């Protein structure tokens, strides 16, 4: 069996929340040894179960800081150490770790890393060929927003996506959750893969400075060009397409069930008229050609809804795809676990926890790419807080037994966070009533075969 | 194998247009007014054939070109379908004026090749020994049916990486199904949590799924290239655009496997916090957390009610969210978005404002990051383009050339490179191969 792409690569993951920690999880899937570093008093914010996190069976449990869903998905396959960076021994250990690592990822504000003498010029002194990846809201440098606090939720407005997202002719909206975080996740992978290859060829490391805002704006490129040369400001068109028609999201049979479809040519429309048993619409001048369909899109939407609202969403997909029309149901967090395509590709991977974790087995999103020559996979469960303190500090860095003990005694390292508390849970039925959950499936563990 | 390698070496020596950076640079400076690169990107020396016609594959190739790879766009003689996609310069739907094609093919060279002909496929096979990566986004099985799938091409080059970006991936019951942005978004979970409860689920504006597919293409290909530089092995990389979108729903997916829940869309009223809210001249958005306490946030908005116990902690604010929204909306009604944005930063709040495309074009932060570059396209002329995805200290983003015009580098590739005679070159055109 071929090797994994990043076997033998050691990566320090000194990052928090979603963006680069998720990159760290994916790097571990690709074979890297990823060491997550947190402060005893500065645990990752996902450990509280905030940020849309959930606890197993909605139960905070004893060691709540090791149990939230988002923490566990993101930190799969990593090692965990804790170092108090406000203590010089913590910073020294961090420096020693840099000396034996290939990549350092961090998402502190520019000021913090400088104050610890851990900005790139200083890191380079410790390890000349180190690859450093920084992720901040607006990027380093002298720009007016570089010091501004930022998270993906508010950046989605600032980098322009809310301007183009929303129902037709209504106000700006968001979509998804923390969108730009994931753009940073993938940008970091691209930067690291490219920089590692360059280091192979030249022996030189470098610093990748990622600004989430900048990555988000990149995904607005065509709107910026249209504004610049045609004076057009874009705006919101709901689920429609700028050219194709009809395109939209339509009610299907059942409660809150939806089908999306997109028709790009007249033959597709004629075929769809056949499926709807309305063949006369194929030649009706109101709808027969693409331009008239664009003009009469509202009426078409009513005609389509009259048809789709009586038919199962999957049946609609297969029928439409059967005549070459792009179509698919709106899938939710439950559906993805049972959909034949996701199942067939093994998109969700099962992680079994050791008994003492009391976490059972869970399904997690793997990654959207497969390599024919490398068996990419989640390499194991997330670590508990500081699980690898001893392995890394004594085993890898050669800290002697007495010195290690004093680090423990002085709480420079820890296995229980000294700050933070679990985000309170709302009982499932109350969540349903208050609209915090759309649905709840009490038998999910049985259905998933995880009971 | 040795014979193949030997002939490959000889041919490589002839392909100076592509394999010799100095030659490339000389030609660039002599034939273009564009600035020649002063250093090389991290993917310097990587050769890529980009067969894709869509946004995702083209964006993947562009990102690789931006960071130093030599990327050759190979499109059908009629032009990649992206050339027919707007927006267009001056709203003129001319094949050289698609702004989308321009954006997605910056920094590439371009030639035409008709893969539907035997001659075209033979030419592709002659190019394969000289490349590291092929990017393609055709229907799974299309290239294999033509005899130029990954298994056929890896026989010509054992370290070949092929990156295939498709709506649902190369395998599975939907692999032959058609995708469109709205369908990828629907099946990628994001629509199930986007929009208003009771209303239709909502997609992101624009073509985010396509961009996501392209960025994942570049990310995974860079990893494969690193492995190739260690072991000499290639890969066929199979990317599903729907799975890219679904990867951004990780908090959503795990809600089910952790506690059996499905997440809703937003309620019509009472959940404006964390969503755009109208102010005097636009929209702003605010989130709790970050460095600002609730007291600071309450003072920022200025209404004393916000300091009352009913809003004191997250659980209370969630319970009284309808009332909270109204207080906040009233307090920003007469205030301007830029003033609020600056003051919020001083208060260390997590805060944003809805920027328009023109505001993004003029953004001083992006200017400080050297995000935009001015380019000079032979048909479009001088325009500013969004350029660097991220900053890199030693081998930064380089702008080298605008998108290629249709068949712009045919002569370089086929006459100078593959050494077809001028007579054969003309024949290839007349037979609709190039």
TrEMBL record, chain A:
<dbReference type="Pfam" id="PF02515">
    <property type="entry name" value="CoA_transf_3"/>
</dbReference>
<protein>
    <recommendedName>
        <fullName>CoA transferase</fullName>
    </recommendedName>
</protein>
<dbReference type="InterPro" id="IPR044855">
    <property type="entry name" value="CoA-Trfase_III_dom3_sf"/>
</dbReference>
<dbReference type="GO" id="GO:0008410">
    <property type="term" value="F:CoA-transferase activity"/>
</dbReference>
<keyword id="KW-0808">Transferase</keyword>
<dbReference type="InterPro" id="IPR050483">
    <property type="entry name" value="CoA-transferase_III_domain"/>
</dbReference>
<dbReference type="InterPro" id="IPR023606">
    <property type="entry name" value="CoA-Trfase_III_dom_1_sf"/>
</dbReference>
<dbReference type="InterPro" id="IPR003673">
    <property type="entry name" value="CoA-Trfase_fam_III"/>
</dbReference>
From TrEMBL, chain B:
<dbReference type="Pfam" id="PF02515">
    <property type="entry name" value="CoA_transf_3"/>
</dbReference>
<dbReference type="InterPro" id="IPR044855">
    <property type="entry name" value="CoA-Trfase_III_dom3_sf"/>
</dbReference>
<dbReference type="InterPro" id="IPR050483">
    <property type="entry name" value="CoA-transferase_III_domain"/>
</dbReference>
<dbReference type="GO" id="GO:0008410">
    <property type="term" value="F:CoA-transferase activity"/>
</dbReference>
<protein>
    <recommendedName>
        <fullName>CoA transferase</fullName>
    </recommendedName>
</protein>
<keyword id="KW-0808">Transferase</keyword>
<dbReference type="InterPro" id="IPR003673">
    <property type="entry name" value="CoA-Trfase_fam_III"/>
</dbReference>
<feature type="compositionally biased region" description="Polar residues">
    <location>
        <begin position="29"/>
        <end position="38"/>
    </location>
</feature>
<feature type="region of interest" description="Disordered">
    <location>
        <begin position="23"/>
        <end position="43"/>
    </location>
</feature>
<dbReference type="InterPro" id="IPR023606">
    <property type="entry name" value="CoA-Trfase_III_dom_1_sf"/>
</dbReference>
């Amino acid at each position: 069996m071929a090797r994994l792409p990043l076997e033998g690569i050691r990566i320090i993951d000194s990052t928090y929340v979603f963006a680069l920690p998720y990159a760290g999880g994916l790097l571990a899937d690709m074979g890297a040894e990823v060491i997550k570093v947190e402060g005893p008093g500065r645990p990752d914010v996902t450990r509280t179960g905030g940020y849309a996190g959930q606890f197993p069976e909605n139960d905070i449990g004893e060691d709540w800081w090791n149990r939230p869903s988002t923490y566990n998905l993101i930190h799969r396959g990593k090692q965990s150490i804790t170092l108090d960076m406000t203590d010089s021994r913590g910073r020294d250990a961090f420096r020693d770790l840099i000396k034996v690592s290939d990549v350092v990822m961090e998402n502190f504000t520019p000021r913090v890393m400088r104050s610890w003498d851990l900005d790139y010029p200083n890191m380079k002194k410790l390890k000349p060929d180190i690859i450093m990846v920084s992720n901040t809201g607006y990027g380093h440098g002298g720009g007016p927003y570089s010091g501004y606090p930022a998270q993906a939720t508010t950046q989605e407005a600032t980098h322009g996506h809310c301007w183009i997202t929303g129902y037709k002719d209504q106000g700006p909206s968001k979509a998804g959750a923390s969108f730009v975080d994931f753009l940073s996740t993938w940008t970091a992978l691209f930067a690291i893969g490219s920089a590692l290859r360059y280091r192979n060829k030249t022996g030189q490391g470098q610093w990748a400075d990622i600004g989430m805002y900048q990555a988000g704006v990149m995904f607005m490129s065509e709107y910026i060009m249209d504004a610049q040369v045609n004076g057009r400001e874009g705006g919101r068109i709901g689920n429609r397409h700028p050219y194709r028609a009809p395109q939209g999201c339509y009610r299907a049979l059942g409660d809150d069930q939806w089908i999306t479809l997109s028709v790009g040519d007249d033959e597709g429309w004629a075929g769809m008229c056949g499926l709807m048993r309305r063949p006369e619409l194929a030649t009706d001048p109101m709808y027969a050609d693409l331009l008239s369909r664009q003009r009469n899109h509202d009426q078409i939407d009513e005609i389509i809804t009259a048809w789709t609202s009586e038919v199962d969403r999957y049946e609609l997909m297969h029928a439409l795809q059967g005549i070459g029309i792009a179509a698919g149901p709106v899938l939710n967090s439950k559906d993805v676990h049972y959909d034949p395509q996701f199942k067939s590709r093994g998109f969700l991977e099962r992680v079994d926890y050791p008994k003492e974790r009391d976490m059972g087995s869970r399904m997690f999103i793997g990654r959207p790419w497969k390599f024919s020559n490398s068996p990419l996979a989640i390499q194991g469960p997330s670590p508990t807080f500081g699980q690898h303190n001893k392995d890394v500090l004594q085993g890898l860095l050669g800290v002697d037994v007495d010195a290690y003990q004093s680090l423990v005694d002085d709480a420079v390292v820890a296995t229980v966070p000294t700050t933070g508390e679990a985000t309170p849970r709302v009982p499932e039925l109350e969540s349903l009533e208050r609209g915090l959950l759309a649905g709840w499936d009490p038998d999910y563990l049985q259905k998933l075969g995880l009971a | 194998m040795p014979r193949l390698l030997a002939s490959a070496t000889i041919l490589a020596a002839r392909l100076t247009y592509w394999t010799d950076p100095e030659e490339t640079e000389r030609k660039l400076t002599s034939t273009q007014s564009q600035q020649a690169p002063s250093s090389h990107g991290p993917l310097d020396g990587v050769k890529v054939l980009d067969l894709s016609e869509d946004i995702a594959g083209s964006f993947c190739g562009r990102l690789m070109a931006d960071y130093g790879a030599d990327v050759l766009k190979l499109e059908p003689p009629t032009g990649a379908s992206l050339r027919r996609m707007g927006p267009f310069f001056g709203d003129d739907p001319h094949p050289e004026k698609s702004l989308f094609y321009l954006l997605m093919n910056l920094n590439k060279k371009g030639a035409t090749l008709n893969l539907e002909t035997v001659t075209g496929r033979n030419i592709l096979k002659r190019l394969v020994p000289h490349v590291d990566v092929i990017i393609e986004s055709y229907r799974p099985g299309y290239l294999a049916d033509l005899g130029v799938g990954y298994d056929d091409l890896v026989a010509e080059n054992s370290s070949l990486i092929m990156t295939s970006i498709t709506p649902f991936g190369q395998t599975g019951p939907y692999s032959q199904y058609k995708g469109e942005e709205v369908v990828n978004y629907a099946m990628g979970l994001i629509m199930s949590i986007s929009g208003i409860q009771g209303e239709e689920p909502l997609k992101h504006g624009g073509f985010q799924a396509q961009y996501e597919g392209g960025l994942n293409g570049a990310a995974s290909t860079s990893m494969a290239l690193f492995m190739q530089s260690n072991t000499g092995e290639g890969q066929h990389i199979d990317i599903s655009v729907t799975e890219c979108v679904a990867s951004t729903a990780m908090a959503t997916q795990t809600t089910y496997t952790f506690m059996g829940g499905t997440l809703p869309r937003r309620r019509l009223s009472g959940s404006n916090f964390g969503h755009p809210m109208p102010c005097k001249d636009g929209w702003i958005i605010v989130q709790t957390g970050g460095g600002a306490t609730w007291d600071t946030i309450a003072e920022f908005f200025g209404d004393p009610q916000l300091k009352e116990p009913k809003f004191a902690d997250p659980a209370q604010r969630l319970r009284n969210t309808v009332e909270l929204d109204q207080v906040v909306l009233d307090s920003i009604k007469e205030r301007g978005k830029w003033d609020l944005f600056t003051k919020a930063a001083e208060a260390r709040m997590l805060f944003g404002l809805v920027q328009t495309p023109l505001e993004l074009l003029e953004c001083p932060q992006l200017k400080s990051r050297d995000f935009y570059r001015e380019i000079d396209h032979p048909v479009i002329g001088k325009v500013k383009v969004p350029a660097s995805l991220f900053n890199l200290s030693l081998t930064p983003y380089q702008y080298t050339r605008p998108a290629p015009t249709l068949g712009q580098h045919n002569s370089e590739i086929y006459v100078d490179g593959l050494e077809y005679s001028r007579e054969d070159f003309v024949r290839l055109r007349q037979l609709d191969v190039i």
